[in-house]
Amino acid sequence: MPKINGMIKNPLFIFFLSIALMITQFTFVPKQALGAANPAVVSGSTYKIVNVNSNKLLDVAGSGTTDGTNVQQWAEDATRAQKWVISLTTDGFYRIKSSISNKVLDISGMGTTNGTNVHLWEDNGSEGQKWSINTNSDGTFTIVNKYANKPLDVSWSGVTNGTNVQIAESNGTGAQKWKLTLEGGLQSKVLGGYWTYWPQSPIRIRDIDPNYNLIYLFSATPVGGAPGTTGAVTWNTPGNGRGAATNLVADINYARTVQGRKIILSVGGANAGITFENRQRSQNFINSIVSIYNQLGGFDGIDWNNYEGSVSANTDEMIWISLELKKRYPGFIITTPPAPWRAADLTLCTAMVQAGALDYAAPQYYDGPGLNDPAFVVSNLDKWVTALGAEHVAVGFGVSNQANYMTVNQVVTAWNQIKAKYPKIRGAFDWEIHMDESRGWEFSKTLKPLLSN
User: Which residues contact 7 (CB under 8 A, 6 or more apart)?
Assistant: First the structure.
């Protein structure tokens, strides 16, 4: 076959070669950085997802809750239709769930072509419902579907309300760039303390040392005693020696709205475990939490303190309850203080984090032989961070003159080692606030400056 400059000279060959090159040019998709957890995203948290080009929010059309409800962009209106729970899956992608319906962002018909519609659908675990969230050089995010390998896109770069959202070939425009705004949820670093109801004259909530940015209300306990007759819980009214009970609702509101603190209702406690053998007990629990929420004028989350000793956790039901509460109250925080030595507790917390049902676990290193040893704390914490990720782990301390509690100096020793090893550790709590008050707030005043150092 004749050649020119070493190349085959054949019109038919050249024609097909040209077609092949054109096809390659127009169909080649650059490989995306898929399947890697993004440290900028707090799994299980609620976000507003804002398009860079239009400054409008990812929105559920008509606040719909059925399969196939369309997703669009719309000006911010503060409704739950614009709030999304983003949770890491076990394979390193994200599930993006509407807070109004518990349904997830899904590509229509598992389509892969440009313009494939994006809508809501029941969570089925498919790759069409998984997304990578990649950070761009300008700090925005590109949200790429795993199955189609195409990013979330505003149709024709539209800027008006109701413009459709789809997937399309990556083009680097603002129509495919998004900002994630954390809605409510946790502070980046938490310093918590347990405020117990039983002292005769507890300090008022608003007067707690300001270094505490999260306060656990301890506690709501099971109706009928452990493990509960119905699954419901009831709030225990605190002592009123300094006006804590009389002013409780006003003080909770002041702490949340003026002081910027998070108020978490702890449920259970020693000899107050709660079990959830069936969905009816779980629903009764939710109903009671809603009742207490209304009674107290609102709070920011619950702390699962319901399993200990002979009372085992009901993992599936606790996950269901947690997700239902997060759906009802966007930004709702779920925490738990597990026993650091118990494998079953680690298994529970791992399952809950993976399901997007737990913001952090805070193993409690006090009130047990050897738990007050800083070396044990640092060593034991390794398995919790490995399983949950540092951002989902806090450290539970107890400062007291009692046996198996730490001194503040021991807390500092442990914390400095932990922070050096795990800079993204979520924070710490103290058992308990009234003890810290009696000691001149030595825990909160000492530890708060060390949280971010």
Answer: none
Residue spans of the domains in the chain: they are: 45-182, 190-450
Could you tell me which of 135, 75, 116, 125 has the C-alpha nearest to residue 97?
Answer: 125
Beta strands in 366-447, from DSSP E residues, in sequence order = 394-398, 427-431
Among the four given CATH numbers 2.80.10.50, 3.40.640.10, 3.90.640.10, 3.40.190.10, the one describing domain 45-182: 2.80.10.50
Residue 2 structure tokens: 């004749």
**Residue recorded with tokens 């452990």:** 226
Each residue's pLDDT tens digit, 185-233 = 777 899 999 999 999 999 999 999 999 999 999 999 999 999 999 999 9
Cβ-contact 217, 266 below 8 angstroms: yes
Contact 375, 348 (CB under 8 A): no
3-state SS assignment for residue 97 = strand
Token output for 419: 């922070």
List 71's β-bridge partners, or say none: 60
Distance of CA 16 to the CA centre of its chain: 54
Token representation of residue 285: 């629990």
The tokens describing 188, both together, are 């980046």
pTM exceeding 0.70: no
On whether the CB atoms of residues 116 and 70 are closer than 8 A, the answer is no
- For residue 31, give every residue at least 6 positions away whose Cβ sits within 8 Å of its Cβ, in sequence order, or none: none
The tens digit of pLDDT for each residue in 269-283 reads 988 999 999 999 999
**CA distances in angstroms from 199 to 205, 239, 244, 432, listed in the order given:** 13, 6, 10, 12
Domain 190-450 fold is TIM Barrel (3.20.20)
Reported as type and span, the H/E element at residue 377 is helix 374-388
